[in-house]
């Protein structure tokens, strides 16, 4: 009786494709933290114990749990206006992650497309894009972001646009360099000898090999976007001052540091942990997705 080949279960194939990611501890730890943070942000109205905008001067400057004077229900204390710090942190995560995802994606899309075109087609395309990148990067990024938001007006969309306009250059330079390196390898020469068009080689051969760099850089850019949004909130150029942003909480906590240290410490810890997670995730993804680095 002839042997019958039994195909491997589809789930097993999916697991094997995810194995390099699961073997990288930085991806697992940082990705797990960011997934939990994203779920908290999505379900913020149901998770937050209080309204982030609700003020109660009778409950002002209450300490967090474990300290003398703690009031049940206010687990991380309150600010000088009686607003619940934990609730404001949770809703602040919503704003931070929204800016990180949308702004980094826009910057990555524009910068990667220009970098691919510059590194592959070269010639006048490379000269124009390279000169534009040099000019754009000559401006201090934080100063330029403040200027752009001041011109565009405050608001979440203005912050996102400003970050995307500033940070596309980082993607363009890195992707251009990687495209130039990939363009000189043997597989590209083989594809050209077979007769594939330059457009086909760029999108079907080079882009998949550049994708790990783009993905890693996208994760790193999300961390930078969180920092930029916090800076703009700190100076009052993000959304309204009453909105629960981590940068705005830092600015407020700085003024009441000696009386209510928790108003400053908790948003700073949230910023640090989130940016660190994005950085670890980016480095881990680069190592897990790049076959050369896995050797």
UniProtKB/TrEMBL annotation:
Bilayer-crossing regions: 27-48, 95-121, 141-166, 207-240, 260-285
Domain ABC transmembrane type-1: start-end pairs: 93-282
Main location: membrane
Gene3D superfamilies tied to this protein: MetI-like (1.10.3720.10)
Pfam families per record: BPD_transp_1, OppC_N
Domain of life per record: Bacteria
Membrane association type: Multi-pass membrane protein
Localization terms from the record: Cell membrane
Alphabetical UniProt keywords: Cell membrane, Membrane, Peptide transport, Protein transport, Transmembrane, Transmembrane helix, Transport
Keyword Cell membrane: yes
PANTHER family: D,D-DIPEPTIDE TRANSPORT SYSTEM PERMEASE PROTEIN DDPC-RELATED, OLIGOPEPTIDE TRANSPORT SYSTEM PERMEASE PROTEIN APPC
Family: Belongs to the binding-protein-dependent transport system permease family.
Protein name: Peptide/nickel transport system permease protein
